[in-house]
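Re-running the complex after MR caught last week's input typo. The corrected sequence lines follow. Everything else is unchanged.
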Amino acid sequence: MSTYFTKDHEWIAVDGETGTVGITVYAQGQLGDITFVELPAVGREIKKGDDAAVVDSVKTAADVYSPASGIVIDGNAALTDAPELVNEDPEQGGWLFRIKLSDAGELAGLMDRAAYDAYVAEL
Amino acid sequence: MNAHNPSGWRPEMGEGGNLDAVATTSGDRGLMLEEALIFELGAPGKCGVELDEPACDPVPGLARFLRKAPPALPGLTEPETVRHYTRLSRQNYAIDLGPFPLGSCTMKHNPRLNEKVARLPGFADLHPLAPQQTVRGALEVINQLAEWLITLTGMHGVAMTPKAGAHGELCGLLCIKAAIEARGEARSVILVPESAHGTNPATAAFAGFTVEAIPATAAGRVDLAALAARLGPDVAGVMITNPNTCGLFEREMKTISDAVHAAGGYVYCDGANFNAIVGRVRPGDLGIDAMHINLHKTFSTPHGGGGPGSGPVVLSEALCPFGPLPFTARTADGVVHLVEEEDAEAFGHAQAFGRMAAFHGQMGMFTRALAYILSHGADGLRQVAEDAVLNANYVLRSLEDVLSAPFAASGPCMHEALFSDDGLPEGFSTLDLAKGLIDEGFHPMTVYFPLVVHGAMLIEPTETESKAGLDRFIGSLRSLAERARASDPSLKTAPHLAPRRRLDETLAARKPVLVWKEAAAGG
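Corrected-run output:
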């Protein structure tokens, strides 16, 4: 399984043709306490860069862009009652949604962890 | 000696002591009153008045509506009820207690004359369905106010019915939409600069347009080159807030308007900050096609005095024919008419896009705004704008040595001074200064808005604050900024002296308790 990162601080963990999407530790730190998460409907077809989810914090509502194209196959139901999971465990238990990838070639344009860490260090 | 103080009374000053250590049995602290929820007071069944049981059976057919259980109302006597709300009001902060430095809100003094006029029974007791010939005075008020707004803005006409700022924005955009449709075009994009009011993109989306953002320059104004580059046959118009939310006047407004018009679009101006330029600048001269005016900001009655707002929209000659019904018009005989669907064509408004409200608009705000305008006069209104700008610049220049002022080099500000959290030590934030202001006895300024500045503090003193009042506020905020710079830990836990300390905003958002339940009261 490989994990890729975007400049907008989303991550996607790819296992075969399934991609699990969330926001990074850095992103949750910038947003502050998450109070509500709106997930995409299962079955929705999304393109890379589309608004896929909304993460509300006390002060801000942030759109989460899909790092890759595909069809939504699952959403993290645990976030309905416990949006704080996105703060506590953003890159594991606080995942947002899963897609069935339609074009694995898109991943080539994303960063690996080392590149993303270097990118965040520059911010 | 024949007087030996038989009562034993003598003044005593006491020895002081730690205020925080004083606990009271009642929860009240001196005359700072604690108060429970109204449902937690009194006893079920108690009532301010005693009513007889009905002496007759219910009307046949209505029996099924008979109440089977008593209403779930709190049981309080009249004096208990009066005390409850009076005690709550003592915990409130109001424009009549002190300054409300909320940037973007224009919380000016609300003259008592306005209230007297608005309460005249001839205005206050009108029914919206009263025949026109019985309400000529009220229609005259609406029309006189409309004429003032047209004169002050240099525009062609005005839609008086919108009920608030964002409602006015929607009205303006629907006019633009109707004008584009009348031209047989399909323009779907509205450009909104980052320095615009937050409601603008929401309004454009609500009106069915696609919203695209235009960046701000480092000086805090619209990036003209970026705007010009984006204009094209798909752009319906732009929404620009002027003066903008950075407290700056958009100096290139005429150039922007000309570029938008040349590309076939229209210019909407958010006029919420009109207070800074009224009597000095006529938006019509800047090429603006539509602009709402928050009567409840520029012409007093801040935030509608707790009641309704009112957001008339002034329109250019190009958009005027599409303005909503009804509107007032004076005919050659001097009589003011309320023009509705049946006579719209006769008054040249056959293309009206529809209506924004059931009736003629917010009468109570019209009377207040006209009273304000007439009591100030044209010269007085101009001085209002000048004093508002002077006060804001006084705040800006008095604090720029202790607070970072990101656009201080962009020239004088308009009606509001903008600071950022840049330069505060690690661990200290805008929020700490805002909470500290509560201990100092002030309503905090607008915080974390506009979004283009990190840790923004937006301070709008308005023209009605005296220099002495401004100096008190500046002195308090300066002392708080100095405490933050010295990393004073007590600032992190402010407010210390308010009825409540810091509230858990995260918990309130995650697990909101919106309805009182009896079970919860026992806990």
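None of the earlier attempt is carried over here. Chain A has one domain: 2-117. The interface with chain B takes residues 33, 35-36, 56, 58-59, 83-84 of chain A (CB under 8 Å).
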